[in-house]
Amino acid sequence: MSGHSRWAGIKHKKGLLDAKKGKTFTRIAREITIAARLSGGSPDSNPRLRKAMEDAREANMPSENVKKAIQRGTGELPGATYEEFSYEGYGPSGVAVIVDITTDNKNRTAGEVRRIFSTHGGNMGETGCVGWMFANKAVITVEKSKTEEEKLMNIALEAGADDIKSEDPHLFEIISAPNHLETIKKALEAQKIPVASAEVTMVPANYIKLNGAAATQMMALMDALEEHDDVKTVYANFDIPDELMENASKS
Fold first, then answer.
1. How confident is the model at residue 15 (pLDDT cuts 50, 70, 90)?
2. How confident is the model at residue 14 (pLDDT cuts 50, 70, 90)?
3. What's the CA gap between 199 and 59, in Å, rounded?
4. 195/181 Cα distance (integer angstroms)
5. Phi and psi torsions of 185, nearest 5°
């Protein structure tokens, strides 16, 4: 679990995401609305909606907010029409960055995200400039204290996992094709192995090691992008020493 994955894990562990609960609710509500608009308001037949509702429960989002977001998606309630797209660019030292956006005003968001890049030593590029460096993968994490590696490997590989990594001192990381995520989760749950996190993400083919000023600048860029209301997710291929990320998460 290198780079941005570990950065996200540290931030979640420290509770920094909870400190921005209002923005978290906004992002989840948008995702629920889009999922309902695209594939209907029933989570049983809409995996994307089901995942968004799980995120809402984990964030302690009020059920009334979830209901209204679904109704906006199905057209039962009026609401803004959101577009989904991605920006690609570079951070300090040529780090590849992909920013997933959900917005009702593309022109405004484009200008604001471009300014964030330039302010923190990066620049936005053309579509496709860094996307080829990433693969769309499902990533499931399990706490090492909850199971044995051999048992986890047998269950996960049989359920369709491609690889299992144990680089993190506290977590196993299961990598698979996106369509195997729910199958692997169910297989683990059936064996009473709790899942710490499960998501479909963009995994880089390689990482750029950062230290010192470049690392600090990269983390500031990540923070600024993640704090923008229209930014859904940020992916990057940096690898920063754990102690630097830990110190940044405390500030």
1. very low
2. very low
3. 15
4. 11
5. -55, -45
